Amino acid sequence: MKRGKEESLKRLHPWIFSGAVHHIDGNPEEGDVVDIYTSEGSFIAKGHWQIGSIAVRVLSFEQERIDVEFWKRRLQAAFDVRKSIGVAGVANNNTYRLVHGEGDNLPGLIIDIYAQNAVMQAHSVGMHQDRHDIAKALCEVMGDELKSIYYKSETTLPFKAGLGQENGFIYGSSDDNVSMENGLKFHIDWLKGQKTGFFVDQRDNRSLVERYSKGKNVLNMFCYTGGFSVYAMRGEAKLVHSVDSSAKAVDLVNANMELNFPGDARHEAYAEDAFKYLDRMTVPYDLIILDPPAFAKHKDALRNAIRGYTKLNAKAFEKIQPGGILFTFSCSQAVNKDQFRMAVFTAAAMSGRSVRILHQLHQPADHPINIYHPEGEYLKGLVLYVE
Questions:
Q1: Taking the CA of residue 73 as centre, how many other CA atoms within 13 Å lie in the half-sphere pointing to its CB?
Q2: Staple partner for 269: which of 137, 147, 176, 242, CB 3.0–4.6 Å?
Q3: Low-confidence residues of the chain, pLDDT below 70?
């Protein structure tokens, strides 16, 4: 590394940027495990080599072999955390994130658990190349609790790597796609659904919606699988309306309602653009949930993203009933907490309504943030009381 550029590694940050590299000995290919040395020639870390602004994702700050036993140790540590926080190994919940990239010292790797099925997602060529060793280690760690591992990295691997990866099972198989979250059942579309098939990161926030739903008219915008809607129904909402631009998502939320509340007339779902629905709506909603897809996937889109969050929240402030509660979120990593809060503040000011912050929300404990990698904090949310 260039002189002085090892300081971030001494602080245990798990990324090495290409500009910090002084020279390369040998000809590593993308995905290879490489050793990193300081300008004085001392070993400091090892990790997956990759092409791009992030040159190395650090796997270890120790001089150790990256083999099945390494993966087993890291996965066991992650599994122990999930058991200790009460999301794994409990009777009413078998839906959780087992591995959250840098938050579990496994940068570039995501593993979500749905009942006895694991969905694995690689975001780096290195994790892709090691997928079979990781799968073997995962089977050893989870034992009889695991029946299948579905590898879903077709859209998350670097396009320029030209890997030609296709999604599919790399261990076992399963067509049982129903899992349980806090006693509620959900169909998980890991084959074609977004991310790994379900937004596990909103579990705690769904529970909060349930607490506030009793007797209310609830609107769940960008509903996807209808997680917030199902929780609102159990929270004894007066009615729940789910809206998504995707007809397939509407079919999925209806299927999840049938799993939990068959024939319950309190729920209706609409396949429609969010802004068009908010413009034409006539129902007096007093609890609205705004959980849009990421408006900014990179910093170049930041300005447009903030404008989008402002416009969306301004429309909700305009429409929500006096005394209503607004849950509003951003999952855009490029938008930080202060920027998101400013967008919502601007929207509130545009509406001229009195607004109070009741809760500031974030990702749950099974999406941990490595204290040395603050970039891992991506989910932001506010619960607002609107007079």
A1: 9
A2: 242
A3: 160-161, 296-299
Residue 227: per-residue pLDDT: 97
Task: Please answer whether residues 245 and 274 qualify as being in contact, where contact means their C-beta atoms are separated by less than 8 angstroms.
Answer: yes
pTM for the complete prediction? 0.94
The conformation of residue 370, written as its DSSP 8-state character, comes to -
The residues near 94 (Cβ < 8 Å, ≥ 6 apart) are 88, 113, 114, 115, 116, 179, 180
How many residues does the structure list for the chain? 387
How many CB atoms within 10 Å of residue 85?
A: 13
Cα first-last separation, the chain: 56
For domain 7-60, the CATH class is: mainly beta
Chain position carrying tokens 């969306």:
312
Per-residue model confidence as pLDDT tens digits over 110-150: 999 999 999 999 999 999 999 999 999 999 999 999 999 99
Residue with tokens 């791009």: 52
In CATH terms, 199-386 corresponds, of 3.40.50.720, 3.40.50.150, 3.10.310.50, 2.60.220.30, to 3.40.50.150
At residue 297, the pLDDT reads: 65
Domain boundaries, the chain: 7-60, 68-182, 199-386
3-state secondary structure of 364: coil
CATH topology of domain 68-182: Transcription Regulator spoIIAA (3.30.750)
Q: What's the Cα-to-Cα distance from 378 to each of 64, 124, 268, rounded to whole Å?
A: 31, 19, 31
